[in-house]
Specification:
The protein is an all-alpha fold and 388 residues long. The chain is 81% helix and 0% strand. The longest helix has 39 residues, at 174-212.
């Protein structure tokens, strides 16, 4: 892969990751409400799967079109030309965003394992496709095609599996639909505020650090991308149990919900900490055995980054726990995280702390926001306040 091709590929990844943020957390929000409906409890018993799908199919169509437009505008602005490869990227953005409709249905109704199996198969097909493109001399068009188009196969598989839940609507009226539409929009937008605040802040500071510390630029970007992938992997034990925990809440099993959430959070953070500490060793082994020359995961920066993301993920898990109890605080914890991280990063940067100012500021932001979130959530729970 030439330097130009590498640059184009990184640009494509950045545009794709930016465009799919158009989901605005609609997928996890709808998934949670589908789980509420499947709980058979007294709460949320005035709407069924059909009513939720009546709401969500319009939302996801709008979101997908918006994401498509966002990716197209980004390509024109950043790359300057629309090619066949970029059109494949835009199509993948649309398909991925609309697939969220079926992911939310299946995960909310308990078919999480099937969703994960489909996603795993998609990743395997992507990897095989990339190997084929390399075998053919690394044609960039084939590389993009094999990486992004397997999403269309996942779309059809998940759509077919979700029909049993959304094909027939048994009961809902427009008054109930209007009420839930407002709640779902409100909760999704609050989640989006947190998403933009946290991910946007991390991305901005990553780019700043890579540009400011030129000799370490590739190491900083590589380290951030790697730790985010590790954290996404480690949070799976918690997220796959969200529908089950939502069912516990809708059935009034609050104490059991707390116990389950705490146990899963410990597993997630412990796994993240463990993998984070052994990844540098694995990276060196890959370099030694295959001479791939991966960017170095250097000393204190990587250790501090792992610790920072342990607190960042804990913050996200606690926010999800309160969201399961219908106490929505994302729109408060996200901006607070951003404010603390940016302030501490500025102070540390002018104090010549160096590149470690990035993970230290992320750690401080996660820690302070976590304390605030626990205090605010427990207070709302005791007073029976629902921030929805």
């Amino acid at each position: 892969m030439s330097i130009e091709q590498t640059s184009n590929w990184v640009t494509y990844l950045a545009i794709y990751n930016f465009a799919i943020l158009a989901d605005l957390t609609f997928t996890p929000t709808f998934s949670r409400f589908y789980a509420y409906c499947s709980g058979q409890g007294e709460k949320f018993n005035d709407i069924d799967y059909g009513g939720l799908d009546y709401i969500q199919k319009r939302f996801f169509l709008i979101v997908s079109i918006f994401g498509l437009g966002l990716s197209l505008v980004s390509i024109v602005y950043v790359i300057g030309v629309v090619s066949y490869s970029s059109l494949i990227l835009c199509s993948s953005v649309f398909i991925t965003l609309y697939t969220g409709r079926y992911v939310s249905v299946l995960e909310g109704c308990g078919s999480i394992l099937y969703v994960r199996q489909v996603i795993l198969c998609q990743v395997i097909v992507q990897c095989l496709g990339l190997l084929i493109s390399v075998a053919f001399g690394f044609d960039f068009f084939l590389f993009v095609l094999f990486y992004y188009m397997p999403a269309s196969v996942s779309f059809f598989l998940l759509r077919s599996a979700s029909k049993q839940y959304i094909s027939v609507s048994t009961r809902f009226n427009m008054g109930v639909v209007t009420k839930y539409r407002k709640v779902l929009i409100s909760q999704s937008l609050k989640g989006a505020i947190s998403l933009m605040s946290t991910i946007g802040t991390i991305q901005a500071l990553t780019l700043f650090s890579s540009a400011h510390y030129e000799s370490l630029g590739s190491n900083v970007i590589y380290s951030l991308m790697l730790i985010r992938q590790i954290s996404n992997f480690c949070q799976v034990p918690f997220y796959v149990k969200i529908p089950m925990m939502a069912t516990l809440y809708s059935s009034g099993e609050d104490r059991l919900l707390l116990k389950k959430a705490f146990k899963l959070a410990i597993i997630t953070t412990g796994l993240l900490l463990s993998l984070g500490m052994i990844v540098p060793i694995i990276s060196e082994m890959i370099d030694l055995l295959f001479s791939i020359r991966l960017p170095a995961l250097f000393g204190s920066f990587w250790i501090l980054l792992v610790i920072a993301f342990v607190f960042e993920r804990t913050l996200a898990l606690v926010a999800h726990y309160f969201a399961l109890r219908n106490i929505i605080l994302w729109h408060q914890s996200g901006p607070l995280f951003m404010l603390i991280v940016l302030s501490s990063f500025y102070v540390l940067n002018i104090s010549d702390v160096g590149v470690n100012s990035l993970p230290i500021s992320l750690f401080l932001g996660g820690l302070c926001s976590l304390f605030y979130l626990v205090f605010k959530g427990n207070r709302a729970n005791k007073l029976e306040i629902k921030y929805d």
